[in-house]
Amino acid sequence: MTKLSTQYLEEAIEDSRPFAANGSVNAALPTFDDTMKELLGVTIITPDFKIYRAGDYNQYVPMQSTSKIIGLMLALEDFGKERVFQTVGMEPMGDFFNSISTLEAPGSDKPFNPMINAGAISIASLIKGQNVENRFDRYLTFLRDITENDELQMDETVYKSEIANGARNRSLAYFMQSTGTIVTDVEEALDLYFRMNSVMMCAEDLARVGLFLARGGIDPDGNTLIPAHHLRTVKAIMLTSGMYNASGHYAVEVGFPCKSGVSGTIIGSVPGVMGIGVVAPAIDDKGNSTAGGALIKKLSKDLNLNMFGIE
Ligand code: GLN
């Protein structure tokens, strides 16, 4: 078995970089264009806080859908599992992450799971606070605590573009209002969701979220921020739905919980072993980073991280 080292990680990056050619950069995101296609950065942090970095690990990008796991943690903390899963399902969905038709599927009165847009917007509608600023403040404080990075913040340009390009998400939200899935203010839920997507992160910040999950909710100072039983739920749902409609493929080929975003972000969490953060902006048609996906598959195989066993 390969031993984790910075040199190994640098070689793994070079092996994975060519997979960027199979994807394209999400031009809907401000400042994102083809010049970013070859970027690939990774950070791995182990429970004893050893840090391994390689490639473009300093590149900040909007966290996008990796925010969905943070929202789920807060909602579980606010309401507990039973209430949260009255609002959103916990089953995988074989459709695209922003699908609207599945909201209307016979027998489905709620979004399939919290990792798709509809599910995350309904989760945002639950997060407690007096107003959207206060609710977002809770989210950001929690994120800063987990990552130990007090400088994390939302990018205004990204936020404005989420609003400007948010017709699809608005349709999902208003549809869910019509079926009674969203019972609080719809515009406020959307506003919170847009802000959550717009927080800028680099590979190390993402790795720290993965590590927080891997350590069962204990922050770097040893405080329990979220009970481990809630994180068990989050990790299980990441494994079954975190990579959208490629989650089954990643469960087989990677075998640990992951969450992707359309900025090419991936958070990986190997329980008890490590947190992984990846930034590689070229994504495939399902919304997952191509080079990033290749990299986590390689890491899983080389470092023997698949919880279901070796290949
Ligand atoms: N901002 C994107 C959206 O709401 C995030 C989706 C994603 O990362 N998959 O559609």
Automatic annotation (TrEMBL):
- Please write the reaction equations for the catalytic activity of this protein: L-glutamine + H2O = L-glutamate + NH4(+)
Name a GO molecular-function annotation: glutaminase activity
What is the recorded name of this protein? Glutaminase
Q: Which gene encodes it?
A: glsA
Question: Which organism's genome codes for this protein?
Answer: Halobacillus campisalis
Cross-referenced InterPro entries: Beta-lactam/transpept-like, Glutaminase
Transmembrane portions of the chain: none
One of the Pfam families matching this protein, by short name: Glutaminase
Q: What class of enzyme is it?
A: hydrolase
Cite the binding residues for substrate. 65, 117, 162, 169, 193, 244, 262
Partners and quaternary state?
Homotetramer.
Upper lineage = Bacteria, Bacillati, Bacillota, Bacilli, Bacillales
Name the EC number(s): 3.5.1.2
Q: Which SUPFAM superfamilies match?
A: beta-lactamase/transpeptidase-like (SSF56601)
Q: Which family does it belong to?
A: Belongs to the glutaminase family.
* Entry keywords, A to Z: Acetylation, Hydrolase
Q: Name the domain of life.
A: Bacteria
